[in-house]
Design brief:
The structure is a homodimer. By secondary structure, chain A is an alpha/beta fold. In chain A, helix 5 crosses helix 6.
């Protein structure tokens, strides 16, 4: 069958806009000669709609949009994703459905059975799992229509205390009994830098096991913290990838499912694509955050250090240099080379910058507090005050000129709380908050791959917050190589302190790092959304109690 | 049977501490003559443990604690709650279990079948639902042991687009077939000001339907945003409440299930208890946040207005006046009566206060920014700068002296974004963030019920942020009576704009309020945890996408 894979970028709750996109793609698929055009999971409303699903009016708008799209499906079939009512008087109110449209109407509903409810997923919050499965007939071909997780009944597992079989049934096994000739999967599978290989493995296994072509359409685009990378794929019955759609861009491609075995096999993204993938994901994440929020312009604080340099380069790619205005906010502890490096970067990127010192406001605050602080020596309080003056200046730019503030903290800092709440933790969006410092270095070299955009001095000098004389990050923290190795095991792999120590790490260091991670839940609770590029980002997908005994 | 209901205050992950509490209570129950002592849901680890449940080491510690507690159960039985492994190789890794302990060992496991996954609940994230049910035998009596939601198979529904029967089975109907003589329910049911009546209704229905006594033990204590009010209850077979344990306090009470029908019936909390209940809930919420975090001292900004006054009175009840130190931070726009009212309150409560002006820092910031802002008139930017100077001063007190900052915003403000991010939205915990302004007024009168603690002028004067000359809240917002009426329908009742207008509210006002709520998701995303006292609080239980089309 000739199938158009329509990988589109939806805005949540923009049902009118999403419908227009879908209708335009159906026209295009028709002109390409498609018999069937496939869209991604919950395409009509965008994924994840979260608690919009608790609004009756939202569900009604989705249903009306589906009916309108169906009217245009004459001489062509389409599969779209939408929430539909569960007509059974018991159970959750909704199903997460794939809807087969054709002959101007909804021909059949196919409900999702396996409802991911882990990490960033909350689907059982809204949906009743399907218990019946029916193969659809499209122009005489028997098609097994599945929704995302329904093909992930046995998942690759990346940590010890987890299992591949989270569910008690396998929708594809049920459908296979009805002799399908083709498998279609509609999905909204968020990006992490290693996800493409895992997806390919899961789909290839089903293709091989049932000796059937598998066509999977993924959502593309950024929705707050979540990046959907697209990279939709078509698999030949032997499990090879016959076609992979663009990453991080909308794409519509026609495949002939009878000819997939003749295609030259495509390889999924490899481990050494990691930094390029993260870069492109972050650019899309920033771009879509602004576009979908209706903003064009950004600001950030440029310190001359690595994190703000990489954030600025990514923001410039996403929004255009002309839409960015940065502040340099030196203190008495800032080195001249930091100022020079920051100016150099702003000039390289052709970004407007201003230099606003923090000393007058810092002095005024200290003087106002001097009757209360009399006789006490300076400590972290004064360091935080400097960071908060900077945060206040940046928010003033944001308020006065309508520039959204980008946060420049990285994942290593967010993990151990090396940052000032209401200071450098300010921002509408955290660009690097899911990127460890060691990878931020690699991102900087990647950004410089063809020219020196980020001054090399920014990359090679020892990291410092410059909040007291001769301060270095390594005064307070382990070296980043060590820190990030321990953090990866603790956060991504969810290993216990004892397990990490048993791998040969110094016990005191591991305990100290774990303690810092635990004691800083309160800071992360108030942090901006972190664009997610790993399998375990801080934020919605990692739900630790704020108040708990953390000192066992 | 003689049953001790042990309603205790657990700390999440303090498995050693919780175990000691449980063992002490077993001793006490024994001395009271109990045959069985019942603890609350997940008592061994505290509820909600969130992603601790993904840690193997955490589960192992829970299991060891259960074994230790069981060893002490000789001559007495106990029912405790703990996560246990699902030994089936498919499905989620854990069950949420009630464990019957006796004869020095675990006699039987009773798994939860109905896993609440809505509002603040995430149970299907971790647990496999039970599919088999077995009545337990305790000293010859057949006991139906149920875990919380298992008795909520048909729930009272408070909004239109929702249903009472969220599940496809009724555990109690299955257990009833095995002729139990008694129903035990262990629960962790969070407080909202109207929950007690709903609980009573649900349990009474089961008591009557099966003509059995029902004994339910609830958790007590504050865990970050969630308040567990205790108020455990025992029901006679006719559905009357024979016994209700204390609200907001630990309590252990012995009941004779054969004599419940002879007890004088207790009434559940009534609608006119609302303000007193909210007050006591907030006091416990503040107290437990500090105790469980290991802090004693608090600070806040006292403006002379209503919200900070009520917050301070609650904090003083929770922590003691001697542990609080407040700042008065007048600006050029602050009225003398505000300063007088603030001083009066601090003196009434015997709380240490300092006056620190914001003008010097505000002037320094303005002067630093003047080259950039030259020729532009003052606007919201300058109002926010004042709020951020105050936030910075308060955080300096917090940093220097180790006082946690309490946030003083109310729910009406949080809803419409009437507050400055990184300014007056600062704080470790939002005390009033789930209390509408109209109820904050009532809380103030309640606090003054025996003496004028809060100066009456603070309560009766028109609310103002005092960030520009003669500013009143009503310049920017509808009057609070109207605002809160619309907000309650939009937030708690989840009604659509059209539904609210159809109730007779002005269309433009309703649309404006809904728009403000929607456009301020980004602010609430970075707000402190809000102590939850309503059925729908901002925060974890209300998950709206940050980036979405909100302007339909």
């Amino acid at each position: 069958m000739k199938i158009a894979l329509a990988q589109l970028n939806y805005t949540i709750n923009d049902i009118v806009g999403n419908t227009t996109k879908i209708e335009d793609a159906i026209q295009r698929a028709r002109s390409m000669g498609a018999e069937l055009v496939v869209f991604s999971e919950l395409s009509v409303c965008g994924y994840p709609p979260h608690d919009f699903l608790e609004s009756e009016e939202f569900i009604q708008r989705c249903n009306r949009a589906v009916e309108q799209i169906a009217k245009g499906c004459v001489g062509i079939h389409a599969i779209v994703g939408a929430p539909v009512l569960n007509l059974n008087p018991q159970g959750k109110l909704l199903y997460n459905a794939a809807l087969l449209l054709g002959q101007g109407k909804v021909l059949s509903q196919h409900h999702k059975a396996l409802l991911p409810t882990y990490d960033i997923f909350d689907e059982y919050r809204y949906f009743e799992p399907a218990s019946t499965f029916e193969v659809a007939i499209v122009n005489g071909t028997r098609v097994a229509i599945t929704v995302c997780e329904d093909l992930w009944d046995d998942q690759p597992v990346s940590r010890g205390f987890a299992r591949g079989k989270l569910y008690n049934l396998s929708p594809m096994e049920m459908l296979a009994k009805q002799n399908p000739e083709l498998v279609v999967n509609i999905s909204a599978s968020p990006f992490s830098w290693d996800v493409e290989q895992r997806r390919a493995k899961v789909f290839a296994r089903h293709a091989m096991q049932h000796a059937l072509p598998v066509v999977s359409v993924n959502q593309v685009g950024g929705n707050t913290d979540l990046i959907f990378d697209g990279a939709s794929m078509a698999f030949a019955p032997n499990g090879s990838i016959a076609m992979r759609l663009k990453r991080f861009e909308e794409d519509i491609v026609l495949v002939d499912t009878n000819a997939l075995a003749q295609q030259k096999a495509v390889e999924p993204a490899a481990a050494n694509d990691k930094i390029a993938l993260i870069h492109d994901a972050l650019v899309m994440g920033v771009r879509d955050y602004f576009q979908k929020m209706g903003f064009k312009k950004a600001t950030l604080g440029l310190s001359g250090g690595l994190d703000s340099a990489v954030t600025l380069a990514i923001a410039a790619s996403a929004l255009g240099s002309e839409n960015i205005r940065v502040l340099l906010m030196p203190s008495q502890y800032s080195s001249q080379h930091s100022i020079d490096d920051a100016v150099g970067l702003a000039q390289n990127l052709n970004v407007k910058y201003d230099i606003v010192g923090i000393q007058p406001a810092f002095d005024a605050l200290k003087s106002s507090l001097s009757p209360l602080f009399d006789g006490l020596k300076e400590d972290l309080t004064e360091e935080n005050m400097q960071a908060r003056v900077r945060g206040t200046l940046l928010m003033a730019i944001s308020n006065k000129f309508g520039h959204l503030l980008l946060n420049t903290s990285n994942k290593s800092e967010a993990a151990v709380g090396y940052g000032t709440l209401y200071g450098d933790m300010n921002g509408a969006l955290s660009v690097l908050g899911d990127v460890y410092k060691t990878d931020v270095f690699k991102l900087a070299w990647y950004i410089n791959r063809t020219a020196e955009i980020i001054p090399v001095n920014t990359i090679v000098k020892p990291p410092s917050a410059e909040l007291r004389p001769d301060q270095k990050d390594s005064d307070s923290l382990p070296e980043y190589d060590l820190l990030d190795s321990v953090l990866f095991r603790y956060i991504e792999e969810q290993k216990s302190v004892l397990q990490i120590i048993s791998e040969g790490f110094d016990a005191a260091t591991v305990k100290r790092i774990a303690r810092l991670v635990n004691l800083n839940e309160y800071k992360r609770f108030q942090a901006p959304p972190f664009i997610r590029v790993s399998v375990k980002a801080f934020g919605f997908g990692r739900r630790m109690p704020l108040v708990a005994k953390y000192t066992n």
